[in-house]
Design a protein that fits this description.
mainly alpha, 3 helical TM bundles of succinate and fumarate reductases
Length: 220
C-alpha cells in the first residue's frame, strides 16, 4: 500500500480502486434499502442477516469503513498535491470551456458528501452499534423497518438526504468515468459504453435513495 501511494499515479490508481469498490457497495446498499418499500418483513430479514452475520460485521464492515476513509483522504491529498504543483494559474484559462464545473469541484462535492456520511452513520450505524454492543439488547428482527421508517418522519432530514444524493449524483457523474480511466480502462470501443453506464448509474442510484426517503416520509 505504501508503494502504491508513494507516487501521483499510484495514488490516483489506489483512489480509483477504492471508488470502484464503493460503486459496487452503493448498488448493494440500495438493493437492500429498496426492500423496505416492498414490505417490512423482507427488509427486516435482510437487515437481520447483515446485522448479525460475523463475516459482514467483522470483515466486510471494517473494509468498507477503510475504503470510505481512504477514498476521501486520498482525494484531499491529491487536491493539495495538485494545488502545490501549480502555484500560479495559467494566464489564459477558460475553465468553463476546458472542463465541467463538477470535475473542477470534486473536492467540494466530496466534502459535502463526507459530512452527509457522518449524518447517515449517526442516524443508523451508531444507533446499531449502541443497540448491540453498548446496551447489549437482544435480537429483535422486527425493529429494522421501524427504525428506518421513523428516521424519515421529519421533513428537514428528508430534504438533507435529497440534497446530498443530488450532489452524490453529480459527483458520480464525473467520478465513475474518471475511476475507470485511472485504471487504464480507456479504449475507443469501450469508453462510450463506460460513459453511458456512468451517466445512468449517477442518475439511478441517487434517484433510488431519494425515492426511499420520500416514500417513508409520505407513508408516515
Amino acid at each position: 500500500m505504501a508503494g502504491l501511494t508513494s507516487s501521483t499515479i499510484g495514488r490516483k490508481y489506489a483512489m480509483a480502486l477504492s471508488a470502484i469498490f464503493l460503486l459496487i457497495f452503493l448498488v448493494m446498499h440500495l438493493s437492500v434499502n429498496l426492500l423496505s418499500v416492498f414490505g417490512a418483513d423482507a427488509y427486516n430479514n435482510a437487515s437481520q442477516f447483515m446485522g448479525y452475520n460475523p463475516l459482514i460485521q467483522f470483515v466486510m464492515q471494517p473494509v468498507l469503513i477503510f475504503a470510505v476513509v481512504f477514498h476521501f483522504v486520498m482525494g484531499f491529498v491529491l487536491e493539495i498535491k495538485n494545488q502545490k504543483a501549480r502555484p500560479v494559474k495559467y494566464e489564459a484559462n477558460n475553465p468553463s470551456h476546458n472542463s465541467t464545473w463538477m470535475s473542477r469541484n470534486m473536492i467540494i462535492s466530496g466534502a459535502v458528501i463526507l459530512a452527509f456520511i457522518f449524518l447517515h452513520m449517526y442516524d443508523f450505524w451508531f444507533h446499531e452499534m449502541n443497540y448491540k454492543y453498548v446496551d447489549g439488547l437482544p435480537i429483535e428482527e422486527s425493529r429494522f423497518w421501524g427504525d428506518l421508517h421513523a428516521k424519515f418522519a421529519d421533513a428537514w432530514r428528508v430534504i438533507i438526504y435529497i440534497i446530498s444524493f443530488i450532489l452524490l449524483g453529480l459527483h458520480l457523474g464525473h467520478g465513475f468515468q474518471s475511476s475507470f480511466q485511472s485504471i487504464g480502462a480507456r479504449h475507443p470501443k469501450y469508453t462510450p459504453v463506460i460513459m453511458a453506464l456512468g451517466k445512468w448509474y449517477s442518475i439511478l442510484i441517487p434517484a433510488g435513495f431519494i425515492f426511499i426517503a420520500i416514500y417513508h416520509f409520505v407513508t408516515q
